[in-house]
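User: Fold this; tokens only.

Assistant: Input:
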Amino acid sequence: MEQNTHYQKSGKKIKKMENCLEEIIIGIDPGKSGGIAWIDENVAIFAQNCPDDVDKMTSLIKEITNKKKCVCYLEAVHAFPTDGRSSAFKFGMNFGIWQGILSSFNVKVVLVTPQKWQKRLGKLPKIKKERKNMIKQIASDMSGLKTTLKTADAILLALHGYEELYG
């Protein structure tokens, strides 16, 4: 079976992906400015910004799952004390909406903390802007996709799920 090998920017080999998966792997960064990525049964990687309303979120999950077995690696995040009440409430709503939609399509959800999936990436900068830019670059290098700050975490969550299942 043919395999694709992905490399980190440093040149370190991190995974081999076989060209047939038993289930679709979804990665979701549930923030309002987050993204969604998925690896289909042919090991093709896709990513896009999170849809901006519940109907579009539902339609996207319906399209991705298409009655196939799926697992979703959903970032387990929380609001910070420095977040405003309104933004914290919206953030929690988005997280809950994703959980409800995924459950309605019988998608198994695995909650993953940022610390856990980022651990695989090696040492990251402590300064948030530098860390986010490095994560974006790593996601682009690993997936071969044009990655944005919105989709980078989701791509790496999906790849984390792949590593957990097939690593």
